[in-house]
Amino acid sequence: MIKRALNRVEGWGRVDRTQEIDFSFDGQWMKGYRGDTLASALLSYDMHLVGRSFKYHRPRGFLGVGSEEPNGLVTWGEGKGLTPNTRGTMLELSEGLKVRSQNYWPSLHYDVKEGLGLFSGLLTAGFYYKTFIWGWRFYEPLIRRMAGLGEGPREVCERDYAWRYCSCDVLVIGGGSSGTAALSELLRGKGRVVILDEGHTEGGWMQGDEGEVEGMEGMDWVRSVWSEADSCDHVRVLRRTTAVSVYPGNYVLAVERSDEVGEGLGPREVLWKIRAKEVILASGGLEQPSTFVNNDRPGVMLAGAVRRYLRHYGVRVGERVCVVTNNDDAYQTALVMKEAGSEVMVLDSRYDVRGLFSDRAREEGIRIEEGSYPTRVRGRNRVRGLGWENLGQGGESLGGREVGYEEVDIVAMSHGFTPCVHLNCHWGGKLKFDEEREIFVPEESSGERFQVVGMAMGEEGFAGGMVSGREAGRRALSRLGMGLRGRMGMWKVGVGGREVEEGEGDRRWDRESVWFPNLWHKPGKQFVDFQNDVSVRDVLLAHAEGFESVEHMKRYTTLGMATDQGKTSNMHGLALLSKLCGKGAGFLGTTTYRPPFTPLTIGTVAGMHRGDVYHAVRTTSAHSAHVEMGAVFEDVGDWKRARYYTQTGESMDAAVRRESLGVREGVGVMDASTLGKIDIRGKDSVRLLNMLYTNDWSGLKEGGCRYGMMLDEAGMIMDDGVTARLGVDHYHMTTTTGGAARVLGWIEGWLQTEWPDWEVYCKSVTEVWSVYAVNGVHSLDMLRDILDDGSLAEGVSPMRVSEGKVGGVGVRIFGVNFTGGLGYEINIPSRYGLWLWRRILEAGEKYGIVPYGTETMHLLRAEVGYVIVGQDVDSTVTPYDADHDGLVSKKKEDFLGYRGLKFGGLRGSGRLELVGLESENSEEKLEEGGVILSEAADLSLLPLENEGHVTSSYMSPNVGRSIAMGLVKDGKSRYGEEVLVGRVGAGGEFETTKAKIVSRVWWREGGL
Amino acid sequence: MLYIPCPWCGEREELEFHYHDEGHIVRPDVSVGDGEWSSYLYERENVEGWQRDLWSHDAGCRRYFYVLRHSVTDEIGGAYKVGEKLPPLPVEAEREMGS
Amino acid sequence: MSGHFSGLRLAYESLRGHTGWGRQWGSSELGDEYDVVIVGGGGHGLATAYYLASECDVGRIAVLEKGWLGGGNTARNTTIVRSNYLWDKSLALYDHAVKMWEGLSRELNYNVMFSQRGVLHVAHDEGDIRLSRRRCNSIRAAGVDSEWLSPEEVKELVPIINLHGRFPIMGGVFQPRGGVARHDAVAWGYARAASGLGVDIIENCEVTGFDVKRGKVVGLETSRGKVKAKKVGLVVAGHSSRLAELAGFRLPLMMNTLQALVSEPVKPMLSTVVMSNGVHGYMSQSDKGELVIGGGTDLPVSYSRRGGEGWFSSTTASIVELFPCIRRMRVLRMWGGTVDVTKDRSPILGKTPVENLYVNCGWGTGGFKATPGSGHLFAHSISRGEMVEKAAPFGMERFREGCLVDEGAASGVAH
Question: Which of C314, C341, C368 corresponds to the end of one domain?
Fold first, then answer.
């Protein structure tokens, strides 16, 4: 039982020990401090075992200290706040936080599935391709159950996720020493600066490293610069913010964990969308682990992380530490752990070790075993001890015999670093392989206004990193025309009490090439990718099976495909593969770096686009009246249109029956405001109309209206509508509701690119006018009643437009209707729309006026054979197919679609043609979408030949039976023929009904 | 997100614009054969490199114009108006294609 | 080489420390001459080579791949398999493939992990319902499986779906025989089987020119030397326009970037594939536990394989509307590929103006599902010198004749 945080040491760390925080892990309550992460708090209780690995369920502990962490994934929160797969190293403590470990059964300490390790021989990389060949469907559920890291959430997160847009002159990504150095120069300039760092405190590697800048201790210097930035009004400081993706043109997406764990009202995360003139990437380097048997045991950690836990969090992770290294930098860890009271030794794979930190370590009497490399770790749930072998002078294996062993509880390993280059590569920046240092670095010439500095650029030294940062800041300002005056003075930079100059004595990462000396060690696993449980042997297998490109190896072994995206595994993977191919470590190149840099909350990407604001809802002016009247709405694109009105709970069929009888026999009104309307003016208006439509518009007089059909250049019907001539060079075009924007775009495209010298101007006026369709025998009577000057109603005749006033407001009355009977459409400026709707209903009361919706509208127009573009015709139907031969002008020599209509394949038989259909049983409504089959079709002989489909179908009380329209093969020459209409019935069987091909006009004014 | 330099409004984010087609596609005379008409409708250059696009600034001035864009690297090399003399394509620097 | 695959063999080899496995496919040098050269080592190209070798009597066959095998769209797709298209001709084409998927693992002796978990297309408004019912009925009439589900039945099948979002779900069309498969395995499985039958597979070999004499292709120029060929099949998807240009003709294609993304892996929460044309997005869950999310293409002609941010936010927002509980999960990785799109969203399979040069392209966003069928039909067509019946409607001539097979209206997000 854990009682005290024994690993928390006095005199170390920068967390605020006056602010205690209670949290629980797997049900046990513990204490941490404000500023702790879950990892630092657990480690303060010496809790290293925190999870189980993906495939083999091996016990795992924290490897690192930041976002590179592959092992320590936990689930926190409950219910709506359940969040799985969170890195404990990035999870800030907050009061009452409840955390659970993942991926085991029944308990973390005794996981039954660890037994899978016994079968690990079978479960090598790609084993599932070689087996389960018969009966995959039986094995698949098992595999699926075994996969997945944590349980997915089932409840819906209620927190907000916001987007914020930002543009700036210079964006600095990364708040370590180089990033802060760049910032310090930028603070002296005038440009708008944004700096971001993924930690909740700035500093990066400085949190764990030694260093002095101008006499100040490293972190003190960092904090002083950042606090100056905090109060500087041209700098935006973003802590807890990870840059996840960079697009060409310096467009950067970054996620700020503004209130990740809390329940506050503010957004949980903010997605910053930053457009920067200049970018400075200071993302630092990723320390790499070493490969040896059981290098995944809890207690085996990265050396840089070990000292950062001590210096920054005040947590000494263990009592007996063995540092495993091939470079000088890791000696910092040895020195500092010894100072904090641990016993320390070092295994260095090099001979004649010399360096800033290793010299000091030797002076302090720390035991250093040169030319040594670990063989295997002992211990299972925690490191118990480490054995080692000797290497040759060139780093080669001498046979692998274990020559030493020590009991330790921490192995702090460091196999060098690799520049963290992801963000450089996202937008297309290139990498080159530095043969000498065996690292991939960004190519200098990569980006014009994208600079990479510090460790990310391969700059190893502390002093060198600062200089590169400062120079980049100055360069950026100068390119922006805001250059700083004077030369850049060199700072006094110290490491270990000694002043260092750029390039001198500061090559702490200098190392020798030591890759996999113990390649052939068996038994035991040497892990390369910790999260996906990929070992050296898996890579050997991939190579043996011919997977020789890095992408193949990655996909076959899944190395680098886990949530850490290979930050601590890619380099080893490709170095090994290169070595197996007999080449140098960088020979094969890298896999493609893809965003996001770290896993990115889906809600953050979606932002506020959810619920009510997911997508715009468009409503007409009279919407509230429709709601009052019991309208049931349907979605037509973005619009809400009244589908039918019901006030007594009647069904849709009953409502439609009532409405459609009411319209024909009395009068009805429908809100048609959603139809597209385009105002066209200019002396070339007719020329435009003649190109847009298939028919001839030259003879249309002022005050006249005409129906027109538009084709695309392939000859297919695209849209239709009535266009009226309002004046000499003034037209009012209507389009379908769904086609409004598309048609305007179509027109603008032609006018601006093909006919730019034409004098004609178009404007969308869809929202300017409210439109009400009034239809039925009493429609004109009503018009007389509502017009200020009732006599004007006499002037309303079919296909004429006239003007008048209602209540003093100017209206336009178009003598057009979609019902084939008596009727018109009255247009009023939409701010009066609601008022006019009410006025119409009021005036119509004595005639028993019926408001009707889109369903009735569809029925009524079908009765007279009118076509709905998008329903009866789509992009595969020509005017000839739709039986509108008369609409295609024989005089015009060109219009859009004219040439398309002449394609050879559009002539001849076999075309689907629009005709009417009557079901044999007049009470039976054919299904819209029903498939047309030959009368003689034999249902037992599939496939049947598809001869078309039903496009519209209704029960018509006016006609007294069901009516339908359909596209039928050669329909125009088959009137009177019988066909079958097939559909998948309610019970799932395929059933058919007989129907006859008829004319699609059933109703005319004056009766049937 | 691309940063498109509208010749009237200046540089704006891609989401304000709409891409239409390859630029400078000329509508042939209607007397051409089926082959040529279908080429006009369906065949495109699909250049791997610098090309001339037709865009419109739908959320702004709503004008159509041409953009020089590199179809592999997403670099933008400028924009010009309909009717203007065609600026030359930017020089193709030494580069490796794709990944 | 790799030998026979089975559970027993796996157990045997594990006892030997897995040292007994050999290469899955041979690595060859470019020969001087072949009877058939397939340009393009993706799923379709490798499948073509396999069926040429196993079912047709054509002689020596080579596959030339510019990069690493299966590294194009085969490596980048969202792995959906289905055949529920609109037109009879499409149904015949795609269902030919689905029937082959059903026996593919056995045929290749490689587990391609074909999971027939069904594919559901949800409908959001009256127009959607009409179109969906039309598809449902047409598909059934053509002898392919298709069911209509009510909203309640949709919810039962997909418990995490939200029926009442901004665009409510009013039903759906379901194809039980559809599902997902493992994309890499398909490429590797075909490569191994083809290699085992003597096909030369040459990676890192880019075609730089065609040798055409009197209108007939007689050979190719490559980065690894010249090679003679009696017949050539081009199966290069996003590179089709460039190769066509080298051969002297143009294709009716548009190259767009298609993006996709995966989430972090979680335990099973989605047991079928859900697609929505209305909100332009779809989702499935891989066997590894990752949610695989896709949508439509970016618009500009592009080879960047990267795509824009607009797609990312709008597709994600749409998917979150359908499945609100995933809001708190995380995106693990996103990527893009170059798809070759035709105006009618149907592929191009057929002859070209150059004699003995055949082309197989234009699958756009929906090529993976057709892999075995495409390879099979293309192989037999090349061998015969004439397009076989199911492939015949898809030649590039259809654009000239005006006989498009327009799946665009019905497919929306065609995957």
Answer: C341
